[in-house]
Amino acid sequence: MNFKTSPGNIISNKNGMALLVTLALISVVCVAVFELTKKLGASALTIMSETNNFKAEKMAFSGINLAMLILANDANHSNSDIDSIQEPWADPVKLAKAVNALEFKDGELVLSISDELGKIQINALINEYPGHKFNEHQKKLWERFLALAISSDKSLDVRNASEIINCIKDWLDSNDDDAITGLSGAESEYYEALNYPYQCSNGPLNKVDELLMIKGISQDLLKIKKNSMELYSDIITKNQNIANLEQDLIVFPSLSQIFTVFGIEDNNDNKKVKNSRFKYPGTININTANGIILASILPVGMEDQAKELIAFRSEKNQNSKIFANTLDKGWYKQIIKLSQNEKKQFEKLIRYSSSVYRAEAKIQFNTTNVSLIGFIKREKNKETGKWQSKLLKLDRK
Q1: CB neighbour list of residue 208: distance below 8 Å, 6 or more residues apart
Q2: Assigned domain for 28 exists
Q3: 313 located within any domain
Q4: What would the DSSP string read from start to end of 90-159?
Q5: Cα gap 183→169, rounded to integer Å
Q6: Is the pLDDT of residue 368 over 80?
């Protein structure tokens, strides 16, 4: 969302920053112990007996609270419904300034915020829940993504795109008498026959790592073909070991950089109905999506133009810190040329706004390192009309 004042309003404005810091500190003092105990369960009680760990947890949780305040403030000072990488919450430098304003005497806190709706929504592969029909647009998205990731040379890459898609569908679907999708799907009978048996979920995933429980999927799911590596360049971190460059298949990013389990459609009326249906639209924010995801939603043969979309989003005026291009609805038309049919299909997969974010707070306190990940939903309070942030889930990495 664009600020009515300057883009750095939330961080550069002294009064706003003072209020932000005050609220963050109050939030930490009042809520930290309660929230950590509630969301981290028994582990929080153990941490309390270990002074360094407990202090580190509290400081990291203050970072999550700060992220919530930054996101709410972003929405409340916006004059549009556009969310993009051009906003202060996505700027590491501005986030670092906000963290510094907390004035921690001990420990070093690093905060990052990313958009969950700029990722592939795993649960959107099914049209609706409960149900067993493919969302055909999402199925094509998966086919494109896997075509970019999987080598066609089976002597080098034994992964099978059809098997992966069919098995994910069978894991998610229900009300089909455990029917197997295609020739390569898998329902409970397959999983219960394993050496360490478990049941098929037959419902939406609750966390991304659940993918690894599904037949045909392992950590190798995101191995990269060498000729597709540039599409991952914006998410491969410098400290990753890019080894064996002579091989066709090399390093892969983490699952959480590509996929999300969030994105359920807001429908307050349905919440009042027991056993009501719900769905995940699966539309991806092209203002925040990374290179490989943008390439996956582009038509076949246009993958390389994902890099042009990223360059357009990030371009700044010469000798200026101001972004050169606005990311209004339809901005992609300035860079890529699509036929009417291609445009129609493309726009069924995209969005320009977001409501769910991932905040990661890393703290180094003495010899203790702690990383908390908070999944935050931004929503409008019906009574006040003000935007607020809600913590959906808290994980310790």
Answers
A1: 122, 255, 256, 259, 260, 261
A2: yes
A3: no
A4: G-HHHHHHHHHTT--SSSEEEEEEEEGGGSEEGGGGBSSBS---B-HHHHHHHHHHHHHHS-S-TTT---
A5: 13
A6: yes
Range of the domain at 110: 9-118+355-396
Q: How far apart, in whole angstroms, are the C-alpha atoms of residue 385 and residue 260? A: 28
105: number of Cβ within 10 Å: 4
Contact status, residue 214 vs residue 198, Cβ threshold 8 Å: no
Does 104 reside within a domain?
A: yes
Instruction: Count structural domains, the chain.
Output: 1
Of 342, 368, 209, 230, nearest to 295 by C-alpha is 230
Structure tokens at 169: 């569908």
Confirm if 154 and 139 have CB atoms less than 8 A apart: no
CB contact at 8 A, 130 and 175: yes
Q: Which token pair is 75? A: 């929405």
Would you say residue 2 lies in a domain? Answer: no
Dist. CA 106–CA 39, nearest whole Å: 25
> The pTM is what?
0.83
Query: pLDDT by residue (tens digit) across 276-332?
Result: 789 999 999 999 999 999 999 999 999 999 999 999 999 999 887 899 999 999 999
- CB count in 10 Å sphere of residue 218: 11
Mean pLDDT of the chain: 84
